[in-house]
Amino acid sequence: RSISIFTNSYVLGLTLAAGIGGLLFGYDTGVISGALLYIKDDFEEVNRSSFLQETIVSTAIVGAIVGAAVGGWLNDAVGRKKTTLSADAVFFLGSVIMATAPNPYILIIGRLSIGLGVGVASVTAPVYIAEASPHEIRGALVSTNVLMITGGQFLSYLVNLAFTEIPGTWRWMLGVSGLPAVIQFSLMIFLPESPRWLYLKVR
């Protein structure tokens, strides 16, 4: 009997919930392009320094590199579920720091925090989806993570457009990224641990 992606709504829901990690990655990489224009308006030192501008943009990528390196170890140590929950918490903390940053240096710390979160999520989401999927449709389900990344980039442009005329502009653009992290955290609490990880831990 052939299995389609839509045969099991539970597995599909699990895939979409885990894929929010990809959405966060895409959103984070896309939103800064619009937000930086308004950050320069608020912080004169950023407007004068191309180095600060480059640091604000690239710090998230640095965090993602570190997060991805640590993510593999976390996945093996505590499991895919707890790793995802931890990544959401770090990402949410980073979004709050960015939204309330009183100066560009605190903003950079926030960018580093969300980078760590998306780095961990980027290695966890596809592993979790793959290990929880029926083998017949595993490839299709894992590929939804990539779809969520590009969807997150598209969403970031829409959010940038929506907040262009709103007081606080860039703070809303960067801060609203905490919402998907809260949604994923809430969903992941009710989802099971990866069966493969449980098997490897003789559980």
TrEMBL record:
TM segment ranges: 12-39, 51-73, 108-129, 141-163, 169-191
Mode of membrane association: Multi-pass membrane protein
Keywords carried by this UniProt record: Membrane, Transmembrane, Transmembrane helix, Transport
Endpoints of the signal sequence: none
Example GO molecular function: transmembrane transporter activity
Localization, UniProt: Membrane
One Pfam family hit: Sugar_tr
Origin superkingdom: Eukaryota
Presence of keyword Membrane: yes
Residue ranges occupied by any Major facilitator superfamily (MFS) profile domain in the UniProt entry: 14-203
InterPro entries per the UniProt record, alphabetical: MFS_dom (IPR020846), MFS_sugar_transport-like (IPR005828), MFS_trans_sf (IPR036259), Myo-inositol_Transporter (IPR050814), Sugar/inositol_transpt (IPR003663)
Gene Ontology cellular component annotations, sorted alphabetically: membrane
Family stated for the protein in its record: Belongs to the major facilitator superfamily. Phosphate:H(+) symporter (TC 2.A.1.9) family.
Full protein name: Major facilitator superfamily (MFS) profile domain-containing protein
Originating organism: Genlisea aurea
Source organism phylogeny: Eukaryota, Viridiplantae, Streptophyta, Embryophyta, Tracheophyta
